Amino acid sequence: MGMDKRTIKIIVAVVSVVLVLGIILGVLLAIFLPYRYVELEVWPRSEEYNHYEPLIHFRAGDPGSWHVWFKRINDFLRDYETTVPEDPPRAPCSIHRHDQRLAVPSCERALNMWAPCNADNFYGYAAGKPCVFLRLNHIHYWVPEPYNVSKPMEIPPEMPNNIKQFMQQRPAHHYGDYVWVSCNGEFQSDEENVGPIQYIPANLPPGFPTNRLTTADRIPYSARNLPDQIHGPLVAVFFENPRRGVVINIECRIWTRDIIYRSSSRVGHARFELYIQ
């Protein structure tokens, strides 16, 4: 026997109320829960880390000054230690200097790829030529849309030439996609003071290979609300000859089609300050 009109109206009203409540709940969650976005992390960090004024300050000739940064990098890299590095390695495989570690050929080859951003060189801090490490976070919410030459979409004219060259030399249909990364002085005076920059490992593209990232399309739906379960690959940024005695503002950003760059935004963007004496 079919339902009468009154029953149908009641069901429709209940469904409408449930839908409205669902929308209200979604809005409230969006307002009161912290916004989750893909974050570009910079390491090392001080104990008083502040996203807006993250200062790395040391005196190159004073081990007591730079050793704290050496230790913080070692603490950060400890989770990446392995005797069987991936190929290519996603991070330095050891935080110990050559006279303190058991030499394993595969790890020694990997450490050579990360030079001078390895423990043997004190990550450059002893020489006043520091390395910082970049890593993506909150990627379990994200499915990146990489820039590559295989898709007929415009490449931003402001994209650095070295990235454009890598896209031509290593097309995605042969070598896979990358979330590209670049760093530069934040203002004109910083550009003059920062000096040459290298991305390490030097023989690899400046970015994060998407096949190494545990993004939302690579994990079960039930795991997308959990913290990143696997430490992502790193890119080291080596400052070859930064000017001493001045604060240098540096910003780094990722390049993907789905993230619109804004200097005021924290999405896919990071900034820090170098002050070397």
Question: How are the SSEs placed, and which strands pair?
Answer:
Layout: H1 5-32, E1 39-43, E2 55-58, H2 63-77, H3 105-114, E3 131-137, H4 161-169, H5 172-175, E4 178-185, H6 188-194, E5 197-200, E6 207-209, E7 235-239, E8 247-255, E9 269-276
Parallel strand pairs: 2-9
Antiparallel strand pairs: 1-3, 3-7, 4-6, 4-8, 5-7, 8-9
Would you mind describing this structure in some detail?
26% of the residues lie in helices and 19% in strands. The chain contains six helices and nine strands; from the N terminus they run H-E-E-H-H-E-H-H-E-H-E-E-E-E-E.
A few lines on this structure:
The protein is an alpha+beta fold and 277 residues long.
Low-confidence stretches: 25-35
How much of the sequence lies in strands comes to 15-25%
Assembly state of the chains shown: single chain
Terminal-residue CA separation: 87 Å
Radius of gyration computed on alpha carbons? 23 Å
Q: How would you state the average pLDDT, rounded? A: 85
Which key terms come to mind for this protein?
277 residues, alpha+beta, five-stranded mixed β-sheet, elongated
